[in-house]
Each structure stands twice: as C-alpha cells, then as structure tokens.
Amino acid sequence: MPILEARNLTKTFRRPDKASGFKGAVKHLAQRKYKNYTAVDGIDLSIEPGESVAYVGPNGAGKSTTVKLLTGILRPSEGTVRVMGRDPHTERIANAHDIGVLFGQRTQLWWDLPVEESLKLLKHMYGVSDADYKARIARFDELLDLGEFMPALARTLSLGQRMRADLACALIHAPKMVYLDEPTIGLDISVKDRLRAFLRELVDDGTTLLLTSHDLADIEEVCERIVVIDKGAVAYDGPITQLKAHYITTKAVKLFLEEAADVPALELKYPQYEWAAGEAPSEVVVTYESARFTTAEVLGGLTAELSPRDLSLSEPSIEDVIRRLYAGELTK
Amino acid sequence: MADTTTHPVRHAGGVYGRSIVAQIRAITEYPADFWVMASAGVMWNVLQFAFLTVLFAAVPDVAGWRYHEMLMLSGLLTVAAGSTALLCDGIWSTGTYVLKGEIDYRITRPAPVVVQVASSHIGMQGFGEVAFGLVMAVYGWIGAGMGLAAVPAGVLGLACAIVIECALITMLCAVNFWIKGTNSVFAFVMLDLQHNAMTLPLALFPAAVKLVTMFVLPVAFVNFVPVAVLTGHLGPWWLVGPPLAAAASVLAAVGVYRLGLRSYDSSGH
C-alpha cells in the first residue's frame, strides 16, 4: 500500500489582473479583476514506503506547490491526497506526527532562542520521550555536528549551520514520510556532502523521502526514482537508472595524441563513430552509441591504432537529460 | 515513540505555555527594548489617568459615574489590553505571516496554528500597561469604597475581560487571511473604539452603539459591564454576561481562524 497517493492533484490560484504602473495600480483599487493560474495540473503520484523520490522541474513548474499540497499546507482545488491513508489537510494534526518537512528557503527555528531550545519546543510539541530525544540528538550530532552550535542563537548561525539545525527539527520526531524542499540551497560543497550522506543514511533506515532540488547531484546521490514536472504536469516518472538508460545513449572519449589529430581522416577510417576536434590540436573527441559498442571495444581498437598518451571517458550527465526534458527535446 | 495520547486541549496548553516561556527568555536578549517598551506602556496610560483627574477636578460625575469608578473603568480596560500584549501578541503578526508564507511550518506541526501564532511574540509594552492598569483599577477600587467581598466578582470580571479581549483581537486579525495586508486594521479599529468609547459610561451613547458593543463586538463586557455591576450601576444578574461573552468570543475566534486557514494559500507558488 502506498505511503503517499495523490490523484488528479490540481491547484489553481487567483491572481490580481492589473495593468502595470501607477495607473494600473490605482485602477485596480477601484475595479478589482482577477485571473486564475494553475500551478499544479492533474498530477498523479504514488510513493511506496521506503522510496526516495526526487521531484524536479524548472522554476515555477509547481514543485513547492505540490509539496505544500502533499503536506496539508494547501487545500487542493481538485483531486485528492492521502498520506498513510489520511487527508493531510483535514486530518492535519494526526498527519503532522508522521511527516517531517524542511523548506530550505525558510527556517523553523525560533529566531531569538538557542537551537537547543527550538528542538526542545518541538520535542514537547511532538510528544517525543526524553530517551528518544537524547538518542536522536546524539545521532544528529554524530552525523551533522550539531553540538558545536546547539547553544547558539538561531539568528547567529551560518546558512550551513541553520540548514543542519532545520534538518534536525524536521526529523526530531522520527517521521515516516519526509519532504525536503531545496535542502542544500546556498550551501558550500562540504556541507552539501555531509547533508547528502545524512540523507542516504535516512533512506537506508527506511524513511520515505520526497526531495526537490535544483542541484541534481543531490538527486543522483540520494534518490532512486525521479519525477520531472513541467508547467504543473508530470513530464517523467521512473527510476533514475531507467532515465539514464533511456536517454543517455552515447558515451564519449577524449584522446590526447602525441601529434595534431587529423579529424577528416579519422572520420573516413572509423565512420561508425562521431569525431570532433578537441580544445588543443592534439585532442580529439570520439562519440559512440553505448548500445552498439562497449567502451573496451572502442578503446581497444583506437589505442592500438593511435597510441594516445592519455584519454578521458565521459557520458552525458543526468543534468543534460533533465535540461533537455525541460526544453521539450525529449518525450516520455 | 511520540506520545500522542495527551488530550488535545491540554497539549495545546502545554505548547502555548512553553512557547510563551521561551519568548520571555528571548526578551532577555534585548534588555534595552524591554525597558523602553515597558516604560512606553506606562506613559500612554499616565495620559489617560491625567485626563480623568483633570476632568473630574471640573465636574463631579459623567452620566452618574464618579472619578474612582471611571478609574476602575479605564484600569480594567488597560489591564485587559495590556494582557493581550503579554498573552497573544503574536496574533498581530497573522497578516505578515500570511503574506510571507510563514504559516507553512506551523501547519505541519501537531498543535493548533492559532496557538503557535499567538505565542510567537510578546509585546513588552504589556508589562507597563498591565502594571499601570492595575494601579489605576486598585486605586479606583479603594476610592470607590469597594470592599474585599467584591474581589471574587472583580477577579471573574478581569479574567473574562482578558479572554474577551484576546479572542476579539484574534478574530479580527484572522481577517487578514482574506484581506491581504500586513496591518490588522480591523483589530486596530476595535482598540481605537475601545480607547475612545469604552473608557466612558455606555449610557452616554445611542442605542445602536450599545447594541453593537454588547451583541456584535462585545467590547462592553470587557470593562463597562463588570465595573457597572461592581459599582451598582447595573444589577448583579448582569454578571453572567462577561462569562457568556467570553465563551462566545472564544468560539467565534477559533472558528474564524480555522476558516481563515482553509483559505490560506502560502506564498511563492
């Protein structure tokens, strides 16, 4: 049975329809007009317990709105959401015990209190026992180095510290379903690595995760499944490995030769590959279809013939695939 | 495991209490603010006290109400208004929270949103207002010749006054869920109405004002009705009015706030 199920999830907002400039603003005061804007358009989503799902899309695609619908913050205009069989909006309090939420752009820490006090307030709000609280804080400290800033006021924290503290707040009650909206936004690489490692552990422990991020490294390192949305509708839903297998059909090898590469001659000799000049005259890039040729096959023939002094292997990143999905170059 | 067996009202009370205590701790971060605001709370009400003293040096009574009775009237209103700053000042931020999407996290926590918002701030001027309001009320009480026997009725009136005031402000601030804006204009209008009209005997006003202040926005039950009962201007059976008005106000406030939450649409979509 899915832990989360959304059917035909739709959210329409009413936005003021006014002309630009001062005149438009004054006219809108007297004659108010609105137009509807559909942020989420008939999304179907089903998540099984223990799954880690990336929810990605370009800016304005409806990611955050979907998360708000799934967490019960917003009421759907149409469609239904069930989280562990409950409607998260009408059964808000019961649902709150089972979910953890982090919005990377906002904090839930009490601004003028030490981090420790915020966590204690949440401990009591969620009814976490002393023993569980101690054990969880010890684990967060081990994985997120919370101890160094537990006594610090929230307003004095760096962004990385704030995010780690917010993550602890979201997980203090050991929720079964966790929603993370841009958890690594603005963080430096070392803090990102630490957070990703923590999230992997969380998933390994059986927590269900829905992650939205523009940093596709977050997604590749933490999630197994990806849902791509665009203009409020699902553009792709499936395993990340399948997305790669389906859309990443070529690989490339850059060869560093001893002398200048003769690209036209290579094209004639090896017409089964695509050839392109590299950045330096002695560099050449050969692209081949990964379904037709193995890397060993390609390299075996070429290294014997061309004796390169070095080579580097690359394949299109998932970022390239998603960029092309956003641009409508790829179909489901 | 999380303990989910606590009664919801008791749980909400616990969340509220801990949050308010946390806010008091936060105040200690800003001692200068505390003293400036608390002093301002006293100063605003010193002016009211001075006005009444000057007025009653010239006239013996206003619509049958004497100086000390009027001090009780003003004192009770000041304590009730000051208490809202101490008990539910965060509710004034409803409009800002709605516009900035800061209700989001509060919806995802297992406690009433209204409780979390109300306890998100303490108005430090409340310390000064409550202190000076009590001085005015007690001074008026003694001057009006009230004895100790009336203290239970006075305490009941005070408790109801605080509840009604908090509930009405909550209800009027909830209007910001629909009328987007950072200022809670309706709540400001109510406070203005109270400070201009409810520091005077209700007998001075036309019937329409009496009806509105008793049955539509029951601000008359905050100070006028309890003081009128205590000083004999109204019969003792009127004493059931403040508890009834308090209960009705709380129900209305919770209901309107819940309705507001249903139409909350966050920000950044």
TrEMBL record, chain A:
Keywords assigned: Antibiotic resistance, ATP-binding, Nucleotide-binding, Transport
InterPro entries in the cross-refs: AAA+_ATPase, ABC_transporter-like_ATP-bd, ABC_transporter-like_CS, ABC_transporter_ATP-binding, P-loop_NTPase
Annotated ABC transporter domain residues: 4-256
One of the record's GO cellular component terms: plasma membrane
Membrane-topology annotation of the record: Peripheral membrane protein
Main location, first listed in the record: membrane
SUPFAM superfamilies found in the cross-reference section: P-loop containing nucleoside triphosphate hydrolases
BP GO terms, sorted: response to antibiotic
Domain of life: Bacteria
Location relative to the cell: Cell membrane
Pfam families: ABC_tran (PF00005)
PANTHER family to which the protein is assigned, alphabetical: ABC TRANSPORTER ATP-BINDING PROTEIN, ABC-TRANSPORT PROTEIN, ATP-BINDING COMPONENT
Record-given protein name: ABC-2 type transport system ATP-binding protein
Organism encoding this protein: Glycomyces artemisiae
From TrEMBL, chain B:
Keyword Transmembrane helix: yes
Transmembrane regions listed in the UniProt entry: 34-59, 71-92, 130-151, 158-179, 211-231, 237-257
Keywords: Membrane, Transmembrane, Transmembrane helix
PANTHER family according to UniProt: INTEGRAL MEMBRANE TRANSPORT PROTEIN, SLR0610 PROTEIN-RELATED
Protein's recorded name: ABC-type uncharacterized transport system permease subunit
